[in-house]
Design a protein that fits this description.
By secondary structure, this protein is α/β, with parallel strands linked by helices. The protein contains 19 helices and 19 strands. It has a 6-stranded mixed β-sheet with strand order 1-6-5-2-3-4, with helices on both faces. A 5-stranded antiparallel β-sheet has the order 18-17-16-13-19, with no helix packed on it.
């Protein structure tokens, strides 16, 4: 609306119909404090700037400190927001009051005043209050009051965006031009693009085949697919159809080339089971979609700002674009079409999420068509709708795929539980590893590896098959079961490490002394003198020696005590091993059950942290831990 004294004068000088005869507008004054309505006015005034001078004026009351610095900062921020740095002049004017400053400045320099309407909860309302009405009453120039469109949701969204703009990163027009040139150059496919795509796919395929995560990460760093995807998001925001065709063409050609190279590399892996790295790319989830969204935001921000380009390698690793395409090629070569579909779904989700996220980031950074580019704005709107619908469709497909995958995993888990349960009930065996399952036309083929302490007869295996099949049929999982059973015979021994270590002292043999020998008298033989011939006159009688008894010691036999063999009993509830020598690594002669009576021999030794006792049992001599013995 147009109000003020000048409007009345123009109306009076009009023709017969009272129409306003405007002598010409050369200078438009736009008072502002940075509010959203003023920004809206400056946006539609931009097309006039080649012929009409537009000045954004901030009135700084002279009684407030630092108001001029605040005004300059707000004007600078406002110009960046409306892309008016090179087209709209700015000026900070001091005055006693805001109303006086606007009217005086317009009277001296301007032809018309365009002011934003007061809006509740807006910055204009806080700073101006009723200033627009006061300017209308006091101005000698025509006054136009501008208000944003009154669409309920549009106003809500514009106000929210306006309030958030100071917290979000924005780029001036020069920085946006440099970023546009850099991104468009990177999105253009050339010989280097195709060469890097081929090499990255070969590296990724070999890493997937040999199950090496490090090699796969290296392939992510080489792949150049991120640039055209970011270019697609920028082209959507700008509404540039030629740029959209260029970026999409690069993505599609790179995708087909990567699949072909992956299929060729898959010839090295024919008839081989899929590795865990391959399978990880065939089961997309909503988490993968979220990762792609945030990777797109980071990629757009890094490519837009040269000082953030160091984040691009991390973005490439997070996005993981080439490994799913290599998985598609390898799976197609091997005839695993379900896995190929899952990998292709993962790549599609990554592409849609990255393109949509980059478009959002470019909008935040200030990329958009100008108000005069109506065709581009229409393309932007249609492309945005397509992006949102594609994102929702991909999310729905992933949800369905995840649900189907969860059902299959639940079925396989139940089959494993049933097999383990029936093995224990029917065969008395344990499951060594999860059974390998194959489904075909309602027939489940089970390849089971079990552990058992005894051989399993053919009849037991048939009973096992019948029991498993009956349970699975009752639960509606399948109709019939074919079974292959491999039995590993095992020998179960007692624990090598006892629960407690309690050495038991063994008795020693002692001998009782016998009676002490006492001396007794025994006769001794005394030799008699022999007669000798001597010349004597007469024979004279001589003394005759007679035998006299003497006492001699006589040994009296005494009873020798005999050592009674010591015995002990096995106390360990599970029995213990009788070994050939002390030590846990010695050969086992036999297993002695609990309450077995053994004869304790003299041998005692220490080995492996235990005290070992030599024993005799059933004619066998061996060693066992003294901790398991209780002397009788």
């Amino acid at each position: 609306m147009c109000r003020g004294g000048a409007a009345g004068r123009y109306r009076k000088s009009g023709g017969k119909n009272g129409r306003i005869v405007h002598p010409g507008l050369h200078h438009l004054i736009v008072p502002t404090s940075g509010g959203p309505n003023t920004a809206h006015a400056l946006t539609f005034l931009l097309p006039l700037t080649p012929k009409v001078k537009v000045t954004a004026v901030y009135i700084a009351p002279d009684y407030l400190e630092n108001e001029k610095a605040l005004g300059q900062a707000r004007l600078r921020h406002l110009m960046q927001y409306v892309d008016g740095v090179d087209h709209i002049e700015t000026e900070v004017v001091t005055a006693p009051t805001v109303t006086a400053g606007i009217t005086e400045y317009a009277r001296e320099r301007g032809d018309m005043v365009i002011i934003g309407a007061s809006q509740e909860s807006s910055i204009d309302k806080i700073l101006f209050g009723d200033i627009p009405a006061a300017v209308v009453r006091q101005s000698h120039k025509p006054v136009v009051i501008v208000r944003q469109p009154r669409s309920r949701w549009g106003n809500w969204w514009d106000n929210l965006a306006w309030r958030l703009r100071q917290y979000l990163p924005r780029m001036d027009i020069k920085a946006r031009t440099e970023a546009y040139t850099r991104i468009r150059r990177g999105a253009r496919p050339d010989l280097d693009f195709y060469m890097l795509i081929s090499l990255a796919t070969i590296i990724a395929a070999l890493g997937l085949i040999v199950n090496s995560p490090a090699v796969v990460i290296g392939a992510m760093l080489v792949a150049p697919l991120m640039s055209p995807m970011v270019g697609t998001g920028l082209a959507v925001v700008l509404g540039d159809t030629r740029f959209i065709r260029l970026s999409l063409g690069a993505v599609v050609r790179g995708m087909f080339l990567s699949i072909l190279v992956g299929a060729a590399a898959g010839l090295l892996n024919i008839n081989q089971p899929a590795t865990s790295e391959l399978l990880a790319r065939t089961q997309p989830t909503l988490i993968d979609l979220a990762i792609a969204l945030f990777s797109g935001l980071a990629g757009a921000y890094a490519l837009s700002r040269s000082d953030a380009a160091g984040a691009l390698p991390g973005v490439a690793i997070a996005a993981a674009l080439v490994p799913p395409l290599a998985t598609v090629g390898i799976s197609l070569t091997a005839g695993r079409f379900g896995e190929a579909f899952g990998a292709m779904l993962l790549f599609t989700a990554n592409f849609v999420a990255i393109s949509s996220a980059t478009a959002l980031m470019f909008l935040i950074l200030g990329f958009r068509p100008t108000t005069t580019q109506k065709a581009r704005r229409a393309v932007q709107a249609r492309s945005g709708q397509v992006a949102i619908i594609s994102l929702a469709l991909v999310a729905a497909l992933i949800l369905g795929f995840t649900y189907t995958l969860a059902q299959e995993q639940a079925r396989e888990t139940r089959i494993t539980d049933v097999v383990e349960e029936k093995l224990a009930e029917v065969a008395g065996a344990t499951l060594n590893e999860p059974p390998k399952t194959t489904f075909a036309d309602g027939l489940l083929t089970l390849d089971i590896t079990a552990r058992s302490t005894h051989p399993l007869s053919h009849q037991v295996v048939e009973d096992l098959q019948t029991a498993i099949g009956a349970t699975l049929r009752d639960e509606g999982i399948l109709e019939s079961v074919a079974l292959t059973l491999e039995v590993i015979e095992v020998t179960v021994l007692d624990p090598e490490v006892p629960p407690t270590l309690t050495p038991t002292p063994l008795p020693t043999l002692t001998f009782a002394p016998g009676p002490t020998p006492t001396p007794t008298e025994t006769p001794t033989l005394t030799p008699l003198p022999q007669p000798t011939s001597t010349e004597t006159a007469t024979l004279e009688p001589t003394a005759t020696l007679t035998l006299t008894p003497t006492e001699t010691a006589t040994a009296v036999p005494s009873t020798t005590p005999t050592a009674t063999p010591k015995t002990a009993v096995i106390t360990y509830p599970f029995g213990t091993n009788l070994r050939t020598a002390p030590g846990l690594d010695r050969a086992v002669l036999t297993v002695l059950p609990v309450n077995t009576v053994v004869v304790l021999l003299d041998g005692i030794a220490s080995a492996d942290g235990f005290v070992w006792q030599e024993v005799l049992v059933d004619g066998q001599i061996g060693w066992l831990s003294a901790a398991f013995l209780l002397e009788r």
